[in-house]
Specification:
about 80 residues, single chain, alpha+beta, 4-stranded antiparallel sheet, 4 strands
Amino acid sequence: MCNLTYFNNQFRFVFSPNEQNWYTIHLNKPFNKRFLIGAGQISNYVNEKNAETVLKTAEKMKTDKCTIKFRKYGKIEIYVK
């Protein structure tokens, strides 16, 4: 797996949380519908195993956009810069 600066330079990760309550309680931040996150911050929003899945998917992308959905957390959209 490549380093995180490669992912930040090549891709954009947009996180859309599922539930406003979970997001507000666990992260103590105001609720936004969608926002950009860095490659190193993915594990803060979805667990460590899911973060690895997101980065592996980004490595194997053949299109400009890919969406990964997680039942508990929400979805992450990956865009090629």
